[in-house]
Design goal:
Helix content: 25-40%
Structural class: alpha+beta
Distance between the termini: 14 Å
Number of domains: 3
Order of helices and strands: EHEHEHHHEHEEHEEEHEHEEHH
Mean pLDDT: 90
CATH class of the largest domain: Alpha Beta
Oligomer: single chain
CATH topology of the largest domain: D-amino Acid Aminotransferase, Chain A, domain 1
């Protein structure tokens, strides 16, 4: 474990998830201050040279990476910190890059025999021409987080052309079958899965599912923990969360999201599929990782301290 006193919290940044990162960063800043660390907040701009200069001047013992989205959790900032030999929280370059690329992560999970939904990467032009999958399906950016840009297309909705016309996330998209049922999530600290949370979006959630607003707006969703699901499903979710963490070579804290189809289970365990793994779980007031840690007896401050103590570099 790292013995650190001077901490720089990276938060804000230049991704579509900047507001979430700012909220996470403010929470972490206050918590680490209360834990007795010397802590400062640094908000990266597009000027990479300025960021490197600021880190050279402050030379922290550890960087707490509270950035979300592209450039913050896709291996980019991890590479900079590895180059500068500054230990940082969460996963390293490879795990961060693969997890952020949903197509690459799907390939890794499939290769490891882990369950994912039917799907494929398409050229967004294909969506203008026809439905890429039969039945209801989900359209996702390949490399965004926090449900940014996620859309559900249901049979007869005629929304695919509108989605394709307004697409702002490059020339490709990931399409996956829509799995009915419930949204579950499991946080992992190191090699320990915490618990299973059952997430229910508010009936008034604009997207009708666990989208960006449902995740980060007060009252946007309700979280039931431990989730009241079939015991085999509960155990399987814990097992799979650790498996996704290991498969990508993650470190520190992660959170794996699932769809759980119990609509035709007739009392059985139903079907559990992996949606994605988050290598930089949110640390806002409505975030799931701190909630699960609290349920397991770890305060928000203790959670942040654990991340500092388990920071690493060049791994």
């Amino acid at each position: 474990m790292i013995d650190a006193r001077r901490i720089t919290v990276l938060a804000g940044g230049i991704s579509a998830e900047r507001p979430v990162s700012q909220a996470s960063g403010q929470g972490v800043l206050a918590a680490l201050h209360n834990e007795g660390y010397e802590v400062e907040l640094l908000d990266p701009t597009p000027d990479l040279g300025a960021l490197v200069t600021a880190l050279q001047q402050s030379r922290p013992d550890v960087v707490f990476n509270a950035l979300h989205g592209r450039f913050g959790e896709d291996g980019t900032i991890q590479g900079v910190l590895d180059w500068m030999n500054i230990p940082y929280t969460h996963s390293g370059i490879r795990a961060s890059a693969v997890a952020m690329d949903k197509a690459a992560a799907r390939a890794a999970f499939t290769g490891a025999g882990l369950p994912v939904a039917e799907g494929r990467v398409i050229d967004i032009a294909e969506l203008r021409e026809c439905d890429p999958l039969s039945g209801a399906y989900v359209v996702k950016p390949v490399n965004e987080g926090s449900s940014v840009g996620v859309e559900i297309v249901r049979p007869g909705s005629n929304r695919r052309m509108e989605i394709a016309h307004n697409w702002q996330f490059g020339n490709h998209a990931l399409v996956e079958e829509f799995v009915p049922g419930r949204e579950l999530t499991v946080a992992v600290l190191g090699d320990r899965a915490l618990t299973v949370t059952d997430i229910t979006p508010s009936a008034t959630a604009p997207g009708g599912f666990y989208d960006f607003d449902a995740k980060y707006s007060a009252g946007g969703s309700t979280h039931a923990l431990p989730a009241q699901v079939h015991p085999d499903t509960f155990a399987r979710a814990l097992e799979l969360a650790c498996a996704t963490h290991r498969t990508l070579g993650c470190r520190g804290a992660t959170r794996t999201d699932f769809r759980y189809d119990d609509t035709a289970a007739a009392g059985g365990p139903g079907r559990l599929v992996i949606l994605e793994i988050n290598t930089q779980p949110g640390l806002t007031q409505t975030s799931l990782l701190p909630e699960q840690a609290q349920f397991c007896g770890m305060s928000y401050g203790a959670l942040c301290r654990w991340m500092i103590e388990n920071a690493a570099c060049r791994t």
